[in-house]
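Fold it.
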Amino acid sequence: MKIEIWSDVICPFCYIGKRNFEKAVAQFEKANQLEISWKSFQLDPAIPEVATESYTDYLVKRKGLATEQVKEMLNNVTQMAKHAGLDYHFDRSVLVNSIKAHQFIQFAKSKNRSDEAEEHLFKAFFTDGQNIADPETLVAIGEEIGLVRDEVLSALGDEQYAYQVNQDIQEAHNIGVNGVPFFVFNRKYAISGAQPPQAFLETITKAFAEWRQQHPEFKLDIQKGQSCTTDGVCE
Protein backbone atom coordinates (compact mmCIF):
# COMPACT_ATOMS: atom_id res chain seq x y z
CA MET A 1 0.00 0.00 0.00
CA LYS A 2 1.34 3.41 -0.93
CA ILE A 3 1.81 6.19 1.60
CA GLU A 4 2.81 9.62 0.26
CA ILE A 5 4.35 12.25 2.53
CA TRP A 6 4.62 15.92 1.56
CA SER A 7 7.23 17.68 3.64
CA ASP A 8 9.67 20.59 3.79
CA VAL A 9 13.03 20.02 5.49
CA ILE A 10 12.90 23.42 7.24
CA CYS A 11 9.52 22.60 8.83
CA PRO A 12 9.93 21.59 12.50
CA PHE A 13 6.66 19.66 12.59
CA CYS A 14 7.70 17.62 9.55
CA TYR A 15 10.62 16.04 11.43
CA ILE A 16 8.42 15.37 14.47
CA GLY A 17 5.74 13.94 12.17
CA LYS A 18 8.31 11.71 10.49
CA ARG A 19 9.45 10.30 13.81
CA ASN A 20 5.90 9.70 15.08
CA PHE A 21 4.96 8.07 11.78
CA GLU A 22 7.98 5.77 12.03
CA LYS A 23 6.94 4.72 15.52
CA ALA A 24 3.54 3.77 14.15
CA VAL A 25 5.03 1.83 11.23
CA ALA A 26 7.27 -0.08 13.67
CA GLN A 27 4.13 -1.32 15.43
CA PHE A 28 2.36 -2.33 12.21
CA GLU A 29 2.78 -6.04 11.53
CA LYS A 30 2.53 -5.67 7.74
CA ALA A 31 5.06 -2.84 7.54
CA ASN A 32 7.00 -4.66 4.82
CA GLN A 33 3.99 -4.21 2.54
CA LEU A 34 3.99 -0.41 2.81
CA GLU A 35 5.51 1.69 0.03
CA ILE A 36 6.52 5.09 1.41
CA SER A 37 7.03 7.94 -1.06
CA TRP A 38 8.48 11.30 0.02
CA LYS A 39 7.17 14.37 -1.80
CA SER A 40 8.64 17.87 -1.98
CA PHE A 41 6.93 20.99 -0.64
CA GLN A 42 8.18 24.52 0.03
CA LEU A 43 6.57 26.57 2.78
CA ASP A 44 8.29 29.76 1.63
CA PRO A 45 10.05 29.74 -1.77
CA ALA A 46 11.05 33.38 -1.21
CA ILE A 47 13.63 32.56 1.47
CA PRO A 48 17.06 33.42 -0.01
CA GLU A 49 19.68 30.74 -0.66
CA VAL A 50 22.11 32.70 1.51
CA ALA A 51 21.12 33.13 5.16
CA THR A 52 20.22 36.73 6.02
CA GLU A 53 18.44 36.33 9.36
CA SER A 54 17.94 33.90 12.24
CA TYR A 55 15.02 31.48 12.49
CA THR A 56 13.62 33.64 15.30
CA ASP A 57 13.90 36.93 13.39
CA TYR A 58 12.34 35.36 10.32
CA LEU A 59 9.27 34.23 12.30
CA VAL A 60 8.99 37.61 14.03
CA LYS A 61 8.68 39.27 10.61
CA ARG A 62 6.55 36.56 8.98
CA LYS A 63 4.06 36.15 11.82
CA GLY A 64 4.12 39.69 13.12
CA LEU A 65 4.72 38.52 16.69
CA ALA A 66 6.94 39.88 19.43
CA THR A 67 10.39 38.31 19.76
CA GLU A 68 9.54 36.85 23.19
CA GLN A 69 6.38 35.26 21.82
CA VAL A 70 8.35 33.59 19.03
CA LYS A 71 11.01 32.36 21.45
CA GLU A 72 8.32 30.85 23.67
CA MET A 73 6.72 29.21 20.64
CA LEU A 74 10.04 27.72 19.53
CA ASN A 75 10.73 26.49 23.04
CA ASN A 76 7.38 24.68 23.01
CA VAL A 77 8.26 23.07 19.67
CA THR A 78 11.67 22.08 21.06
CA GLN A 79 9.95 20.32 23.97
CA MET A 80 7.57 18.58 21.56
CA ALA A 81 10.57 17.43 19.53
CA LYS A 82 12.28 16.14 22.67
CA HIS A 83 9.18 14.10 23.48
CA ALA A 84 9.50 12.53 20.01
CA GLY A 85 13.18 11.75 20.68
CA LEU A 86 14.64 14.67 18.69
CA ASP A 87 17.12 17.36 19.69
CA TYR A 88 16.24 20.79 18.25
CA HIS A 89 18.53 23.85 18.36
CA PHE A 90 16.75 26.69 16.57
CA ASP A 91 19.54 29.07 17.57
CA ARG A 92 21.89 27.08 15.31
CA SER A 93 19.54 26.72 12.33
CA VAL A 94 20.84 28.31 9.13
CA LEU A 95 17.66 29.59 7.48
CA VAL A 96 18.09 29.17 3.72
CA ASN A 97 15.91 28.25 0.76
CA SER A 98 15.21 24.51 0.69
CA ILE A 99 15.08 24.10 -3.10
CA LYS A 100 18.57 22.55 -3.38
CA ALA A 101 17.78 20.19 -0.53
CA HIS A 102 14.63 19.07 -2.35
CA GLN A 103 16.55 18.52 -5.58
CA PHE A 104 18.97 16.41 -3.54
CA ILE A 105 16.04 14.40 -2.12
CA GLN A 106 14.65 13.82 -5.62
CA PHE A 107 18.03 12.49 -6.74
CA ALA A 108 18.29 10.33 -3.61
CA LYS A 109 14.81 9.02 -4.41
CA SER A 110 16.07 7.78 -7.78
CA LYS A 111 18.64 5.74 -5.83
CA ASN A 112 16.12 4.46 -3.24
CA ARG A 113 17.67 6.69 -0.57
CA SER A 114 14.96 9.31 -0.06
CA ASP A 115 14.13 8.34 3.52
CA GLU A 116 17.79 8.50 4.51
CA ALA A 117 18.11 11.85 2.73
CA GLU A 118 15.13 13.30 4.59
CA GLU A 119 16.44 12.08 7.94
CA HIS A 120 19.94 13.49 7.45
CA LEU A 121 18.66 16.83 6.15
CA PHE A 122 16.28 17.28 9.08
CA LYS A 123 19.09 16.54 11.53
CA ALA A 124 21.48 18.81 9.65
CA PHE A 125 19.03 21.72 9.84
CA PHE A 126 17.41 21.36 13.25
CA THR A 127 20.17 19.74 15.31
CA ASP A 128 23.56 20.38 13.75
CA GLY A 129 23.11 23.89 12.35
CA GLN A 130 24.39 23.00 8.88
CA ASN A 131 23.71 24.97 5.71
CA ILE A 132 21.40 22.73 3.64
CA ALA A 133 21.71 25.03 0.60
CA ASP A 134 25.48 24.48 0.46
CA PRO A 135 26.43 21.91 -2.19
CA GLU A 136 29.32 20.67 -0.04
CA THR A 137 26.92 19.96 2.83
CA LEU A 138 24.64 18.05 0.48
CA VAL A 139 27.57 16.13 -1.00
CA ALA A 140 28.73 15.14 2.50
CA ILE A 141 25.23 13.96 3.40
CA GLY A 142 25.05 12.11 0.10
CA GLU A 143 28.27 10.26 0.82
CA GLU A 144 26.99 9.37 4.30
CA ILE A 145 23.96 7.65 2.78
CA GLY A 146 25.86 5.88 0.01
CA LEU A 147 25.60 8.30 -2.91
CA VAL A 148 28.46 9.25 -5.22
CA ARG A 149 29.93 12.75 -4.84
CA ASP A 150 30.12 13.64 -8.53
CA GLU A 151 26.60 12.35 -9.15
CA VAL A 152 25.24 14.49 -6.32
CA LEU A 153 26.95 17.61 -7.67
CA SER A 154 25.63 16.88 -11.15
CA ALA A 155 22.09 16.34 -9.82
CA LEU A 156 22.09 19.72 -8.04
CA GLY A 157 22.51 21.43 -11.42
CA ASP A 158 20.12 19.14 -13.30
CA GLU A 159 16.80 20.72 -14.27
CA GLN A 160 15.21 17.26 -14.18
CA TYR A 161 15.24 17.23 -10.38
CA ALA A 162 14.08 20.85 -10.09
CA TYR A 163 11.18 19.89 -12.36
CA GLN A 164 10.30 16.93 -10.12
CA VAL A 165 10.27 19.23 -7.08
CA ASN A 166 7.84 21.56 -8.85
CA GLN A 167 5.68 18.63 -9.94
CA ASP A 168 5.34 17.47 -6.33
CA ILE A 169 4.41 20.96 -5.20
CA GLN A 170 1.83 21.32 -7.96
CA GLU A 171 0.37 17.92 -7.13
CA ALA A 172 0.07 18.99 -3.50
CA HIS A 173 -1.87 22.10 -4.49
CA ASN A 174 -4.11 20.01 -6.77
CA ILE A 175 -5.23 17.77 -3.90
CA GLY A 176 -5.66 20.65 -1.45
CA VAL A 177 -2.43 20.53 0.54
CA ASN A 178 -1.54 23.95 1.97
CA GLY A 179 0.56 22.88 4.93
CA VAL A 180 3.01 20.15 5.86
CA PRO A 181 3.59 17.49 6.97
CA PHE A 182 0.78 15.91 4.99
CA PHE A 183 0.38 12.12 4.81
CA VAL A 184 -1.83 10.41 2.21
CA PHE A 185 -2.74 6.75 2.62
CA ASN A 186 -3.76 4.80 -0.49
CA ARG A 187 -5.11 8.05 -1.98
CA LYS A 188 -8.15 7.73 0.30
CA TYR A 189 -7.21 8.89 3.80
CA ALA A 190 -4.99 11.74 4.92
CA ILE A 191 -3.38 13.07 8.08
CA SER A 192 -2.30 16.68 8.34
CA GLY A 193 0.33 17.68 10.86
CA ALA A 194 2.55 15.94 13.41
CA GLN A 195 -0.07 13.64 14.90
CA PRO A 196 0.75 11.16 17.70
CA PRO A 197 1.95 7.66 16.70
CA GLN A 198 -1.42 6.13 17.63
CA ALA A 199 -3.26 8.33 15.13
CA PHE A 200 -0.91 7.20 12.38
CA LEU A 201 -1.25 3.56 13.38
CA GLU A 202 -5.05 3.68 13.35
CA THR A 203 -5.12 5.27 9.89
CA ILE A 204 -2.52 2.87 8.49
CA THR A 205 -4.48 -0.09 9.86
CA LYS A 206 -7.79 1.13 8.43
CA ALA A 207 -6.36 2.05 5.02
CA PHE A 208 -4.40 -1.20 4.75
CA ALA A 209 -7.45 -3.35 5.56
CA GLU A 210 -9.34 -1.74 2.67
CA TRP A 211 -6.32 -1.98 0.38
CA ARG A 212 -5.89 -5.66 1.20
CA GLN A 213 -9.50 -6.36 0.21
CA GLN A 214 -8.76 -4.86 -3.19
CA HIS A 215 -5.38 -6.62 -3.42
CA PRO A 216 -5.74 -10.08 -1.85
CA GLU A 217 -2.57 -11.98 -1.03
CA PHE A 218 -1.52 -14.42 -3.72
CA LYS A 219 -0.89 -17.81 -2.14
CA LEU A 220 -0.13 -21.08 -3.92
CA ASP A 221 -0.86 -24.58 -2.66
CA ILE A 222 2.57 -26.10 -3.39
CA GLN A 223 3.36 -29.79 -3.73
CA LYS A 224 7.07 -30.10 -3.02
CA GLY A 225 9.52 -32.34 -4.86
CA GLN A 226 13.26 -32.43 -5.52
CA SER A 227 14.61 -29.07 -6.64
CA CYS A 228 17.60 -26.73 -6.58
CA THR A 229 17.50 -23.37 -4.80
CA THR A 230 19.28 -20.11 -5.47
CA ASP A 231 21.70 -20.74 -2.59
CA GLY A 232 23.07 -23.83 -4.38
CA VAL A 233 21.23 -26.51 -2.42
CA CYS A 234 19.86 -29.37 -4.55
CA GLU A 235 17.81 -32.06 -2.81
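The chain has a mean pLDDT of 95.
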